[in-house]
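Supplementary Methods, section 5.1.

A reviewer requested that the exact input to the structure prediction be made available. We therefore reproduce it here, unchanged from the version used in the analyses.
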Amino acid sequence: MADEKQYDLVIIGAGPGGYVAAVRAAQLGMKTVCVDKEARLGGICLNYGCIPSKALLDSSHYYAMAKDSFAEHGIHVGDMDLDIARMMARKDEVVKGLTDNVRQLLQGNKVEIVHGTAKIAGQTEVEVTDENGGARTLKTRYILLATGSKPVSLPGLSFDGRRIVSSTEALAFEAVPEKLIVVGGGYIGLELGSVWARLGSEVTVLEMQGNVAGPVDGQIARMLLRSLKKQGLYFELNTKVVGAEVKDDAVNVTVEADGKENTLTADRVLVAVGRKPLTEGLGLDTVGVELNDQGMVAVDATYKTSVDSIYAIGDLIPGPMLAHTASAEGRAAVECMAGQMGEVNYDAIPAVIYTHPEAAYVGWNEEQLKERQIPYCKGTFPFTGAGRARCMGDTEGFVKVLSHTKTDRILGVHIIGARASDMIPEAVLAMETGASCEDISRVVHGHPTFSEAFQEAAMVAQECSIYIG
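The structure derived from this sequence is encoded token-by-token as follows.
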């Protein structure tokens, strides 16, 4: 039976884009319902991505430090035992705590929560089918699509959930693989490869390109590659995967490099070559929501689709597939619905790779500036010169600041080091406000901290600027 109840907004998807949009909509006085097919809210990020991966990264990092680094500090651990079941249980506890928080957040803001599979039934109608097959129709003024994305497989490497897996299964191995092949040298492959390498797996990363970490500044990517190699990960660059065969308890992977084929064998293969929008079953064609050539939902500057009442955000639309990007877009989209000036500055979106050392960046890198023939100054400062890094015994890495030669305005900041993820927000704020290197150099930074390296790098870049001379 149709539910005649009227809403201002129906959000499909309760991930970081959907639930943040729901809270903002409620704050703006919109009667909002959030639909998700999972019993646990939070979407892919909280349940199968950002949060569980970081929990395992931290646990595995502590394990690696106990094995290799504590003695330097005068701490002798003795015999160690790895309890992988307890590590996984802790990860699940972290996830549950945060997903429970999302539910409380929505309920506290009087957002109605509906569980079931949602499908667009009309320009202002969403049909929801629950796990028992019961259906109801939600009538609304606006619909916001926030269903996220799913892992992409490769020809010849279809996911079987056991031997050839996606990131979801790689976050829940019951034992440490003796040998793990990671197909894809992007941030997902590097992070999960790091987890299992620290815990004792022999990890080989296969990457088609000549370097790792995708759009990361070349200097940062090269240092990250050297560091991960020192940690025991193996890399085969400029290498194409031709196919794979599961045989007994192993996977034989055929690769091609320099025109020659070779076969590698592993217990498990993680395919981490990217993600694609989750649009199947949404009923987009029912109302004529247009997709672009890449299969993503086409939207305008207000996140409105080709249908005036339907909006889309996050991994469904062009742009960086990052949880915090989706959250920002969710806020902006509902503000636009409410007649406000919601927007996202895509020139100031940070990205982080949570390996050790971490890599984080915002803005343009050197390669992009050279390609666009933009005159720039470069300032770098190594963490070997930072007192706090010395105290921690974690001096690997540096900060790079890129600024415009004539105006001294910061164009990009790139960091590789132990605290990169916690340092990048200052750089994001600087770019959002149009700050110059002189601005950063004049801000008093606490001592001793890692952030002093940002100040020092800004000072170096400032010295070359025509603006100063």
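The first helix runs from residue 16 to 27. These observations are discussed further in the main text.
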